[in-house]
Each structure stands twice: as structure tokens, then as C-alpha cells.
Design brief:
The complex is a heterodimer. By secondary structure, chain A is an all-alpha fold. Chain A is built from 16 helices and two strands. Chain A starts with 15 loop residues before the first helix and ends in an 11-residue tail after the last helix. The chains are: A mainly alpha, B alpha/beta.
Chain lengths: 352, 517
Amino acid sequence: MSLAISSPHAHGGDTIRMTMLTVIIALLPAAMVSVYLFGWLAVFLIVACMLSCLLTEAVCLRMMGRPLKTLLDNSAALTGLFLALTLPASIPWWMAVLGSVFAIVLGKQVYGGLGYNLFNPALSARVILLISFPLGMTSWLIPMHVGPSALNMYDFSAALAFFLHGPEALKLGLDAITMASPLGHVKTEWTQGIGVAEALNSYHYSYLDAFLGREAGSIGETSALALLIGGIYLLARHTITWHIPFAYIGTVLLLAAVFSVISPEHYSPPMFHLFAGGLILCAFFMATDPVSSPVTPLGQIVFGIGCGVLTWAIRTFGGYPEGAMFAVVLMNCAVPLIDHYCRPRAYGHGGS
Amino acid sequence: MPAMLRTLAQKLGMMAHGFHGGVHPHERKLTAGMPIEDCPLAPLYIVPLKQHIGEACTPLVAVGDKVLRGQKIARAEGYVSVPLHAPTSGTVVKIEEHPVVHPSGMSMPCVFIEADGLDEEDHSLERMTNWRDLDAAVLRERVRMCGIAGLGGAVFPTFIKLVQDKKNPIQTLVLNGIECEPYLTNDHQMMLEQAEEVLQGMAIIMHMVGAESGIIAIEDNKSDAARVMRQALAENSELAHVHVAVLPTRYPQGSEKQLIYSLTGKEVPAGKLPLHVGVICQNVGTAKAIRDAVLLGKPLTERLVTVSGDAMPRPANLRVRLGLTLRYVFAQRGLEDFENIQILHGGPMMGERLRIPDVPVIKSSIGLLAMHQDTVMQAHPAEQPCIRCGHCSQACPAALVPNLMADHCRNEQFDKAEAYNLFDCIECGACSYVCPSNIPLVQYFRYGKGQIAQLRREHDFAEASRQRFDARDARLAREKAEKAARRSRVRKELAPAPDKDTTTKVEKSTNDKAEES
């Protein structure tokens, strides 16, 4: 029996395991939409990422002499799911596995494991992949139900062959099965001097499709609806607080609104920004990753605003069409500083 | 602008009403509504000489002395202290060390009284039925002499709080009937059964401190108590400016500073007392004890104790004489085998784990809980890394950032821990309660506070030594200078001194030599 243990002698029952599981559950709607849109390819990608994350974690734990049952905290599984959902369906299996290894080793374990990482592991892995394989990471397959595609992703063997050996195995040209993402399209058109409205027109852009997820993109990022359902679930379960997502999305909307009013030809409208790319996934799931975000409420607001400004700025002025993951990873660096300066006013210390 | 943003964020992050943070543990009030029963008298009583915050008492009795119930057996030492009284009539059989309520199982000098079974009372204190005409100082002395200390569990000598301060006049008396700890129901039951007495105590306190208004604070899980107190107030013409405030149930609402904020919206400044915002708080049990001391001339020799816990065969609200052992009290309710049982003194959130049941009930014994070993152990599994979820900050009633503060304590960066307002932590345990990583945050904070206190003592000691050393140096230098001055004066008087310069030089060198040798 242990001696002289300090109060309290009761516990609310929250565990890391349950917290992580809650986030996994919150991601299920988005995962289901990804399977609906990308068929077996989405399944393969999710399974490959989750398994390789778990395996890498196991190897790391073994090397560090930590108990293997740490795997049960679900954090590695969650990282795998996160990573899969931010990847395009077109990438080959080894890229997914490599990303998973990056996520666990460089994103998490080199810092000392869960709780010590500076960056969101999944997002940092995605950034590494994007920089290393720019083409592979920006080839967006035409989702099922969206347009005619030469690849039937509901066909198990075809999907498996594609996943293992790439489009060559099926004798498919990339052009026949891929399309531009809305963000990519607008950016490309802009570089050719075509305005936002015209670009959206030529893309046949529809806000409803974007909201529901019937558009090209990373497998888990397309459906704003599915992600919002998950986000609301997280808010309702008190796993996250409103501060980061609201500050983040609010900032992007505000900046987009102001600038699109000033010059609608140059700047995309706010709702386009909202539904495009990884904004909602990042705002509700990535930026709120507890380990790499501030703990203080004011700090979370500052962090969210910072993510919003960077996301909008990179999308608008940067070389990459999408800036959400860069924004979050950049703001991750500032977290200790933000927390230090945003401590809440303690009871009895000044104030009104 | 940052200050404004900060305030705004805090306002938005706060619950709509009441203090910041807080948690809602399972209430498990097994004994709610159970009538108060008297715990039977026993043959032996053990009275520890320190039962309150402050100095221990000095015994006034010797082995073999006969004592009556309520007779003073130990006198207070120093200002922050109150005397002790015999819990029953009998004979002092020994005065020696015995284990007391403490997680370490440590011992302390105790007076052992063998009961004669007659339970005769000492009636030497007169009844102050005319208290309304008496000076506050007289009543205050009565409260002190009757050994009353805060019966909500903090056991701070009550008389110290009952002052009239010209600079900080007290407007409001808050009667604390919150009882926010799980399991505990003794205050609840006292309000149900002894509302009249509690109100009399309240009137006496208000008279003593000159408070114009009073608030009886009760949580909404005790609406029957609120009803009874309101009824009693309606029948009491004297307490016109007193009302019952029902607050939403939330732990740690009963903590003085949090309660004052919930009721008045005022924050007690850090390092200050509630009286600086014109408020004093008293527990309902303390009010009743003050009433007994003043109206009946009865010193504090018993208290209400919630005897409960998930391993308790027959939980109850008991009126227990101080000095009975926990083993005896538990036995009265059917618990005799302590195998796989963890005893808690106080509630599960702030109480202490005891290693043995052979310690006596003292003034701070609000509850005695017998818990299954597993239940308590489940609250303390292995510590995992902090995932910075921020639930501790959200739960902290003092609006601290517990996880960062704990990091600083663990890394022994005590200056930083202090900068994070470590000393504003009230150790309520809300942070540890919600932590998904099971980090014993409160334990880190206690460690940090202890270490800082130790460092301060060492620093003060070193500082005092340095000052002594400097003073010695200064004295030696002064003496040397004085001696030199004296010598030169003497020489000057003796010699005619034709050549002034050489004389001085010679003098100086001789002087130096003299000092060196």
C-alpha cells in the first residue's frame, strides 16, 4: 500500500485513452465520407497509416524501453487516422507508410513521446511529405459520384492494384483520373490572369457540393458537413473548447470578407475559403490537438487568430494553394510563448 | 488592449454564474436526510493537544486528576490557539504520545481520560442570555475560551475572525452551509434539525462583528435545508437582513474565497482576508457551537460527523464526542474489519488518508469515510505525461494554470512556480480530479510550497548570519578607529610634536602592528 498519498482521493474517470478515442469517433463521419468518395482507396490509406503508425510507435517504445501497453492510449492510432485523412487518395502505399513513420518518429517520439511534441505529428508529417513529393501530394483523384473517372475505386482489385503499383498498373494516365482541387484551380487560373469569379465559374464550383464534400481534395477534408458534425461532437463532449476553432475560422472569414469586398476579382469569397481545403479539419481537429496548442483560453484565441491569418495569407499570397497545415505547424512553434503571455488573471490578483 | 482582451476571454470562458472553474464529482450523499444520532459514550478518550491551526496547547491536568465534561484540560499557547476541554467526566490516566489524524501516522502528546460513566458537566461558565447587551470583546473571549475553531474542517481559531476593525468594517456574514464534498451531510442535517440554534449563533456572530446583513449559502442539492432555513428565518424577527442564497451545486463552492465571489461578485485580494472586502464566513456548525458557548456556557466537546463511505455497512450522521477513536466510531456502525479498507478523514476531495483507525476524533473531523481500497486506488493510477488538454485550467477555481505550475514544481523552478501564483492554490483537488493523465497535481503543489517555505527559512537564516557578520565587521572597524583616535590623542597630549608629519606616520605603523599581533 502506498503511503501518504495526497488528496484528492476521487477521480473523474477521464483518461488519455478515452480522450483520444473520442477524437477518433469524432472523425468517423469524415472517414465514412472519404470511403463513400474514394472507395477502397480510402480504406487502404486509413488502414495503412494507422497500422504503420502503431507499428512505428511500438518500435520506438521498444527502443526507449517503455511499456508496449502505452500503445493502448490510442494516440498513435489517432495520428494515423489524422494523417490518412489529410492525404490525397492518389498516393502510393509507401508514401503513406513513410508519412506515418515521419509522424511518429520526427513528429512525436524524438521529443520524448506523447505530451512533449512541439508540432502536431500528423500535420508535420504531411508538411514533410508535401515538400518532399510535391507532385504526388497534389494529384487529386476524381472522387466517385463527382465526375466521370477511368478508375472505379469501389472495385477492390482495381483499387488494390492502384494502391500498390500506381496508375501504371492499370494503364491509366493521371489526366484521366485526376482533377484540380478548387483551391488549386483558383490559384492556377490567377497565375494566368483570370479572376476569381471566372475561375469558379469554369470549375463549375457549387457551395452545396463543397459543403457536402462532392469535390476533389484530401480524402478526409472534402466534406465540411461531416467534419462539422465531428467538431460539434468534440465541443459537446468538452474534449475541445470553442476558442481555437471559432477564432481560427472567424479570422479567415473576416479577412476573406474584407478583402473580397475590396477587390472581389483578386480575393476569394469567405464561404469559398471556409469549405475549401483543410480549414475545417485543421480548425476543429488539428489546431485543437491539446499537446501542440495553448492551454490558456486567451492563448487559444491568439493561437486561432494566428492560424487564421497565416492560412488566409498563404492561400492568397503563397506558392502553395493550401496553407492550413503550414499555418498550424508555424503557430505550434509559438505555443510556449503564447501560453506564457496569456496566463489568466488568477483569483484575487487585480482586475476590476 | 491586451488587458481588455484578457478580461473578455476570461469572462467568456467563465461559467455564467459564480466562481471560475469547478467540478461536479459524484455526490454520493448516502446519509442525506438521516437524523442525527448520538454516538454512544466509551470508556476511554484520547485528546490530542493540537486540534486547530496554530500553536499546540499545554496540559493543565496531571495524571490522576478528576475532570468534568467541559472542564479546561489544556490552555492555549500564543495568539493563534484555543484551549481544550474534557469530552466527558472521568480521570486523567496518562499524558503521552499517541498516533493522531495525519497521513504519515505520526504521534503527538495526548491527554487520556478514563470515563467514569457519569458524564457530569462542568457548569462553571455562566449562560450569557443577555448577549445583546454584552460587549463584543466579552463574547469573543467566551468563544476563545470555549475552544471553538472552524468546524468546516479548516479549524482556524474562530475568535480571531470575530473582530470589529474600524478600517475594514464587516457588512456581511456569510453562513457557509455549502458542504460541497462528496459523502458529507453533517452540515445539511444540522440545518434540517437545528435551524433555530444555527440562526441564534448567526445573530450572535452578527452582533459581535457588527454585520448588517447575512447570507445563508446552500447548494441546490440541499433544497430541503434551504426551505427549512427560510422557514426558520421567517419566524425569526431579529434577523431581518438575512436571506438564504441557493447556489448551483459545484465543487469547491464551499471554499471561502470562491463562495464570497459566488455570492457577492467580490474577489478577496491575494494574501488578504475576507474582511478586506467586508465579509466574514462561518460554517453552520461553528455558528451552532458559538451559540452553545454563549447561550449555554458549553465548551466544544463534541461535533457532528458524517460516518460514511462505499465500504461503510451502516452510514450515519453522528454526534461524536471529541477523543473517541475512529475504530470505536466505525464499530458503532458495524465496521470492525479494516482489511482492504482505506479510511479517509474528511471528504474524498480534500481529506487525508489514514493508515490506522486508532486515532481520535478531533475538531476538524467533518467526516470519517471507509472506502474500498480499490475505489481509492483507482483515483491514483500511474502518472502519464501531460497532454496539455487544459482541463485543469478550466477546473481551477483560482484561475491558475495547474499543468504549467506543476511542471515548474517538478523541475524545481520554484521562482517560476511562484510567478504562476502557486500560493493562490487552495489545494481543492479539482485539477487532479479531471486530469486524464492522472497527474497528482496537488501533490506537486504541496511539494513546491514546502520547498519554497524551506528555501525561505534557509535564506532568512543566511541573511541573518550575513547581517550578524557585517555588524561584527562594522563593530571591529569602529573599535579599531576609536582606539587609533584615542592613542593619537594621548600621544599628542604627551609629546610637544615639533614635526607633525613624521609623528603621524610612526603612530600609524605602530598602530597597524599592534592590530596585526
